[in-house]
């Protein structure tokens, strides 16, 4: 390896470090995805004979009222992306200030990120329960006379799940935006202040525009996560009540492991992949057009 060019040597070393993760992704992500494609065109039977049925699973999907509800709920869940990104940017600006104890504050906000969503969902499930802490406090304060069914009501179940998702994701995106803010040269901010701009104007006209590459990346990753939400629905509501939280990913799982319709489940998964790709391409094109501008450091 000593005879190789430095650039080639660095590339080989980089791939060696990535190799364990790439192997895991290949066996647990690439192979299942590729294997599900032919399955989507079949009437798969665990015990009987598997038959090729062409596009019948896809035709069934788009005539399935419950699947249409799942699509609408998944699209609705995408509404978590804008408030999550806005709050993360504001939080990053705040934690970038030199205040005593701000490092502890950053750590506290990041703890939910490294906590399993399953554990987070169980904890919030207890809090939102009819006999949970939130209802007990509201009743003690006299704000309500009887417990509210936060996660048991079709009108509020989705809002609870969206709130929990935003709460957990704040710390992750906060750290990404914080890295972006700290990479902006201080001279640019100082120049704006010298020219007469207020702190707020400097933030809006200087810092936030220079964060566009980070906004593009964070929005894209947040969007993919929102469309493919599963774990919190699985733990907290199982798609209920009355399908109010039935999203595409959970519907695909339900059809595979409850109704044992693996071919139909695979077709639903492919539709989800197409929807995710459409959203991702739209955000990516925005980033290429203007959302991904950088500055000369």
UniProtKB/TrEMBL annotation:
GO terms of biological process kind: transmembrane transport
TM ranges: 12-41, 70-95, 107-127, 156-178, 214-236, 262-286
Main location: membrane
Keyword Cell membrane: yes
GO annotation, cellular component aspect: plasma membrane
Keywords tagged on the record: Cell membrane, Membrane, Transmembrane, Transmembrane helix, Transport
A Pfam family that the UniProt record links to this protein: BPD_transp_1
Cell compartment(s), UniProt: Cell membrane
Domain ABC transmembrane type-1 intervals: 70-283
Coiled coil: none
Membrane topology: Multi-pass membrane protein
Signal peptide: none
Family, as annotated: Belongs to the binding-protein-dependent transport system permease family.
Protein name in UniProt: Lactose transport system permease protein LacF
